């Protein structure tokens, strides 16, 4: 290839233009290489900036959620104080208030309880036990632990007891 380059840029008889053409090609190559390096550096800077911004979004989203959870923590502390003072009715009211407030806060952020009436759905339910029952086989009999979704995503599946086939009478 070097021979080919020399042939192409070989100065014509009596001209010094070949060296100038070679210098022009080298300058053009260096300019293209510098442009490529600048573009690569710009892309790397963009990638780092996007990563930083994404981390900031997560941090600020968590900050907002924490700020909304603090009043729930305050109410829970008041309920615990009422328990220490043996005011059972105030304790029950306080715990109910905290439960309602926390449920409302989670609902505002898109958290929903998974429906557990009806048939077992392996996408949103986790069967802990199949129990013989007269109910339709595969239907949910009992909820051991509620499940929740965040948007369309299952955060925690509902842990349930599922109806199995009816028990055969001994006989």
**Sheet/helix structural class:** alpha+beta
Q: Characterize the overall form.
A: elongated
Strand order of the largest sheet: 1-4-5
What is the count of helical runs?
3
Largest sheet: 3 strands, antiparallel
C-alpha-based Rg, rounded: 36 Å
* Count of β-strands: 6
- What is the H/E order? HHHEEEEEE
Question: Quick check: average pLDDT?
Answer: 84
How much helix, percentage-wise, in residues?
A: 55-70%
- Sequence stretches where pLDDT stays below 50 over 5 or more residues: 4-11
Number of separate structural domains:
2
For the termini, the CA-CA separation is 96 Å
- Please state roughly what percent of the residues sit in beta strands, choosing from under 5%, 5-15%, 15-25%, 25-35%, 35-45% or over 45%: 15-25%
Task: Write structural notes for this entry.
The chain is of the alpha+beta class. It has 2 domains: 1-109; 113-171, Roll (Nucleotide Exchange Factor Grpe, Chain A, domain 2). Helices cover 57% and strands 18% of the residues. It has helices spanning 2-9, 17-84, 88-108, and strands at residues 111-113, 125-132, 140-145, 148-150, 153-156, 158-164. It has a 3-stranded antiparallel beta sheet. Strands 2-6-3 form a 3-stranded mixed beta sheet, with no helix packed on it. Strand 4 and strand 5 (153-156) form a beta hairpin. Helix 2 (17-84) packs antiparallel against helix 3 (88-108). The protein is elongated.
């Amino acid at each position: 290839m070097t021979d080919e380059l020399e042939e192409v840029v070989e100065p014509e008889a009596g001209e010094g233009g070949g060296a100038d053409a070679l210098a022009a090609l080298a300058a053009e190559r260096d300019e293209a290489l510098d442009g490529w390096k600048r573009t690569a550096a710009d892309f790397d800077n963009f990638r780092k900036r996007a990563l930083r911004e994404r981390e900031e979004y997560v941090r600020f989203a968590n900050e907002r959620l924490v700020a909304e959870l603090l009043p729930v923590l305050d109410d829970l502390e008041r309920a615990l104080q009422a328990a220490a003072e043996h005011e059972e009715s105030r304790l029950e009211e306080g715990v109910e208030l905290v439960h309602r407030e926390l449920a409302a806060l989670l609902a505002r952020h898109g958290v929903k309880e998974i429906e557990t009436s009806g048939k077992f759905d392996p996408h949103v339910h986790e069967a802990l036990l199949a129990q013989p029952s007269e109910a339709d086989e595969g239907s949910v009999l009992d909820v051991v632990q509620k499940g929740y979704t965040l948007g369309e995503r299952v955060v925690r599946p509902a842990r349930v007891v599922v109806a199995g086939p009816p028990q055969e009478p001994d006989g």
